[in-house]
Design brief:
- By secondary structure, the protein is an alpha/beta fold.
- The protein folds into two domains: 6-232, Glycogen Phosphorylase B (Rossmann fold, 3-Layer(aba) Sandwich); 239-310, no CATH class.
- The protein has helices spanning 35-47, 79-99, 109-129, 146-153, 170-173, 179-186, 197-211, 239-246, 249-261, 281-293; strands at residues 6-14, 17-21, 27-31, 50-54, 65-67, 70-74, 130-139, 158-162, 191-194, 214-216, 219-221, 227-232, 267-275, 302-310.
- Strands 5-6-4-1-7-8-9-12-11-10 form a ten-stranded mixed sheet. Strands 2-3 form a two-stranded antiparallel ribbon. The protein has a two-stranded parallel sheet with strand order 13-14.
- The longest helix is centred in the first third of the chain and has 21 residues, at 79-99.
Length: 313
């Protein structure tokens, strides 16, 4: 296979960059906000890997490009696909179903069809850029069919999947008309990762109940002899790096200034998110109000700060 193929490939709904227009009118890219980008950028740079994802514009085909030490591979999406695959099935079906909050999930056949079509495109792009025996790491609920599609295209690959949101119990997951297809899609991975142990247990239980495969604790035995492992790997930030940064004189001085500007509260609650309904910002505000109403926090001693960056969609 060509030498420019990657030994480590990240596959995610979005590339880790946003397009901007500079002061002189030229187009450029900057790193995106968000937990997924923060978590994966260092890993990608360390392994000189490739990142496959949508670049944020509709009906536009872009060639792969380099940014800040990363090789980025854009996946094109049409305006209809964004509406049906992303805003529809991903964020109006899967997200509320998996969280059981915010609003009821919606089920539409055309959304599902778009989800299948887009997942196949991501799988094909990943297969095209991965070297022989490469490790491919598929990310999150938007791409749950990619592992199996990718395995059908490239059986030589080592495939991992990580879900960054909860995975529901059978009582919730059973509402999804395409539940078996989702489970079989995830079983294309060698390792399926979750944030919490309960999510991994839900997945294994559903595979046993809905697909009929034999399971052993956190392992799934497939008919072809392959074994899929489901495990919890809570995602983290660079805690040591942030701790060291927090103890620098400049940061300590700035922190003291901010605390004084806020009235020197005993408790500071901070949220930093994209301005998107999936982040539950109104619910967060109401929860803060409940804490005040119940007397568990005091208006004299507590401050809630929410930083919301514009949604990329």
């Amino acid at each position: 296979m060509p030498n420019d193929l990657a030994d480590f490939v990240v596959v995610a709904n979005r590339l880790p960059v946003d397009r901007i227009t500079t002061d002189d009118g030229h187009m450029s890219w900057r790193s995106s906000p968000g937990g997924l980008v923060t978590a994966l950028e260092p890993v990608l740079r360390a392994h000189h890997g490739a990142w496959v994802g949508w670049h944020g514009a509709t009906d536009e085909v872009l060639d792969p490009f380099e940014h800040d030490g990363m090789h980025l591979v854009p996946v094109p999406l049409s305006e209809i696909e964004v509406a049906e695959y992303y805003e529809g099935f991903s964020n109006a079906t899967l997200w509320p179903l998996y969280h059981d909050v915010v609003r009821p999930p919606e089920f539409h056949r055309e959304w599902w069809d778009a989800y299948v079509q887009v997942n196949r495109r991501f799988a094909e792009q990943a297969a095209a850029v991965a070297s022989e025996g490469a490790f491919v790491w598929v990310q999150d609920y938007q791409l749950q069919l990619v592992p199996q599609m990718l395995r059908e295209l490239r059986s030589d690959l080592r495939i991992g999947f990580f879900l960054h949101i909860p995975f529901p119990p059978t009582e919730l997951f059973g509402q999804l008309p395409w539940r078996r297809e989702i489970l079989e899609g995830l079983l294309g991975a060698d390792l399926v990762g979750f944030q919490m142990p309960g999510a991994a247990q839900n997945f294994v239980r559903l595979v046993r109940q809905r697909v009929g495969h034999k399971t052993r604790r956190n392992l799934v035995d497939l008919p072809d002899g392959r074994i899929v492992k489901a495990e919890a790997y809570p995602i983290s930030i660079d805690a040591a790096g942030f701790e060291a940064l927090a103890h620098t004189p400049e940061i300590e001085a700035r922190a003291a200034e901010i605390r004084e500007q806020l009235g020197n509260p005993k408790t500071v609650l901070l949220g930093i998110d994209r301005l998107d309904y999936t982040k539950g910002l109104p619910q967060r505000l109401r929860a803060f109000g409940e804490l005040l109403a119940e007397g568990r926090l005091s208006v004299e001693d507590a401050v809630f700060i929410q930083v919301a960056t514009p949604s990329r969609e």
